[in-house]
Specification:
alpha/beta; Ribosomal Protein L4, Chain: A; 2 domains; 6 strands; 33% helix; elongated
């Protein structure tokens, strides 16, 4: 598949050939859904946590004697029926939401998402993206010269170019990452993908050259 190549000024200067083993993979919605759900589950952080009666403080002795007070008998103020006592059947940190997906499934789902971006014209290739120093205003201006306009964008770089990463950090709906960190969720989270030509080779070497 051939796609146009743009300059940082938004001018079309030619075309480039995308490797078909990555950018022309037939869609399988069930596989993409399975991988996306697994990746979301693996990112999930379990923060809700309640204490049981063995974990709350206090209650070292019986609140009052067993008989003769006219009140119901109680053995500890840590009982779940007491205010400030332990919680019964509450959420716990030890719950595991992890789902296992093998490497080939993850890569194939990623290739499907990349293929869909290319097919829809949402993959923009530039001859280069160079920002030696962080320049957020200049980077935003560059995006406005491309078909991206005000849509959300994922900037994929060959490596961790600090100038680009810092330039993108404060632009809304825009994220930059190295090619080796690319995954299905990142691709699906943005409308457009913008990358220099060198990123195509980096993606190929990372995800297809190690099979």
């Amino acid at each position: 598949m051939k796609v146009p190549v743009y300059t940082m000024e938004g001018k079309e200067v030619g075309t480039t050939e995308l490797p078909k083993e990555i950018f022309e993979v037939p869609m399988q919605k069930d596989l993409m859904h399975q991988v996306a759900v697994a990746q979301m589950a693996n990112k999930r952080q379990v923060s809700a946590h309640t204490k049981t009666r063995s974990e709350v403080s206090g209650g070292g002795r019986k609140p009052w004697r067993q008989k003769g007070t006219g009140r119901a008998r109680h053995g500890s103020i840590r009982s779940p029926i007491w205010v400030g006592g332990g919680i019964t059947f509450g959420p716990r940190k030890n719950k595991n939401y992890k789902q296992k997906i093998n490497k080939k499934m993850g890569r194939k789902a990623l290739f499907m998402a990349l293929s869909e971006k290319a097919k829809r014209g949402q993959l923009l290739v530039l001859d280069k993206i160079v920002f030696e120093k962080p320049k957020t205003k200049a980077f935003y201006a560059m995006l406005q010269l491309l078909p991206v306009k005000h849509k959300s964008s994922l900037i994929v770089m060959p490596g961790s170019e600090k100038g680009v990463m810092l330039s993108v950090r404060n632009i809304q709906k825009t994220k930059a990452l190295p090619a080796k960190q690319l995954n299905l969720l990142e691709v699906l989270s943005k409308t457009f993908m913008v990358m220099p030509k060198d990123s195509i080779q980096a993606i190929q070497e990372t995800f297809h050259g190690n099979d």
